[in-house]
Amino acid sequence: xxxxxxxxxxxxxxxxxxxxxxxxxxxxxxxxxxxxxxxxxxxxxxxxxxxxxxxxxxxxxxxxxxxxxxxxxxxxxxxxxxxxxxxxxxxxxxxxxxxxxxxxxxxxxxxxxxxxxxxxxxxxxxxxxxxxxxxxxxxxxxxxxxxxxxxxxxxxxxxxxxxxxxxxxxxxxxxxxxxxxxxxxxxxxxxxxxxxxxxxxxxxxxxxxxxxxxxxxxxxxxxxxxxxxxxxxxxxxxxxxxxxxxxxxxxxxxxxxxxxxxxxxxxxxxxxxxxxxxxxxxxxxxxxxxxxxxxxxxxxxxxxxxxxxxxxxxxxxxxxxxxxxxxxxxxxxxxxxxxxxxxxxxxxxxxxxxxxxxxxxx
Length: 362
Hints:
The chain is α/β, with parallel strands linked by helices.
């Protein structure tokens, strides 16, 4: 097996693609001090700031996805695709990586496609239970596909699939005590706690529902840790009180998970991987505004195993009632906690880099 001196990673658009990419990069550098890691992202997307802030170099492609609502905005797509393919080829030829890894996002398509044409082994890290069309197409030429869910052989060549799970933050591997976590958020007591998450930017439907039904929620005798997201904090900060902690963003997610008796969350793949490690009962409210409706499919894969519950945004009128049922049913909470824990893959990053290492010997 050759030393892994150079690796190129493409992933971005959302934190769900960026975080796994960074986790993989850090593990490569940990194993091979001095190894060169280069990222390829999409211009004007969040990876162009997040990756340099993490200490890695990145180059941007002029690429975006198909907009299903604003059809006229797609007129430039052919030009963007051709430009990105050629720039990806130049980057790969100049950098000459041993392996190219894609974690999803607009730039992954042209980057992995050109790498495969140039004879460089490629690895796809698929986070979701239902892959998008780009990864389905790329899988035909990929050398390895690391997945987080079983049953993806219906989308990808089965002989290329390795079940590794999704990378998670290392601070989530050892959660603090519940008492310590509640103290961190300055809750007045140790009563039952509801954690509400809508992603780093926030979820309009979840925030609106919590605000409208907050009195009914508090009547359950619970205290609430509510992450509104940065876009919505100013609108909802008025609800902050001794029993309701309203945050634009939660830095200490380890403490947030440790404090919670019940969690309400979107169903992004990275979030689900974290929640499986936390092993807490979860009520998912999937975002309907994602490609291939993959959040709903992610959540359904857990609901089918009696590992979580789910409400769609069309069912949010019954939100407080659903919470009341869950807080009253200790057996259900215990079952969901046990079953979601079975999905935890704490060694995902290590196992993915193991697969990358194997490709360097080919």
